[in-house]
Design a protein that fits this description.
Blueprint (H helix, E strand, L loop, with lengths): L4 E10 L4 E7 L8 E2 L2 E3 L6 H13 L9 E6 L9 E10 L12 E8 L11 H12 L2
Parallel strand pairs: 1-6
Antiparallel strand pairs: 1-4, 2-3, 2-7, 5-6
Length: 138
């Protein structure tokens, strides 16, 4: 029987002065750890629309889905302890001082300097963040 794959979208949101927006997860897996905003695609929803929706729901930050730049797809087996997950990761830059508020699924939300991120991020989000930072510096 084929393995069911769940589809998600994650967002790397940065400011021009080099800060990254992370959420503190309020649920398992990785409850209490820092992660990129993101979540499951709804039925009939593209990953780009899911990324913008999840960003708004979790952080209060609104971006036009067309402003999201694709960073890549992460779909390696074992990346999520709940089963097979494939995520499309996006990048957007917002003005410094953009207001944030913890919402759906986030215990708290915080701007972190890209040079002073938490030692460990949930899932493979450190790898996604590294790829996004490389994209920004091109």
């Amino acid at each position: 029987m084929p393995e069911e794959t769940r589809y998600t979208a994650d967002v790397v949101i940065m400011t021009p002065d080099g800060h990254v927006l992370l959420i503190e997860r309020d649920w398992e897996p990785y409850e209490g750890q820092w992660a990129l905003p993101g979540g499951h695609q709804d039925e009939g929803e593209t990953s780009r629309l899911a990324a913008a929706r999840e960003l708004l729901e979790e952080t209060g930050v609104r971006v036009d889905p067309d402003q999201l730049r694709m960073v890549g797809t992460w779909d390696q087996p074992g990346r999520d302890p709940r089963g097979r997950y494939s995520t499309d990761a996006y990048l957007a830059v917002v003005p410094a001082g953009t207001p944030i508020v913890a919402g759906d699924d986030a215990r708290t939300v915080r701007w972190w300097p890209a040079t002073g991120l938490p030692a460990q991020l949930a899932f493979d989000h450190a790898e996604i963040l590294t790829a996004a930072l490389t994209e920004v510096n091109r």
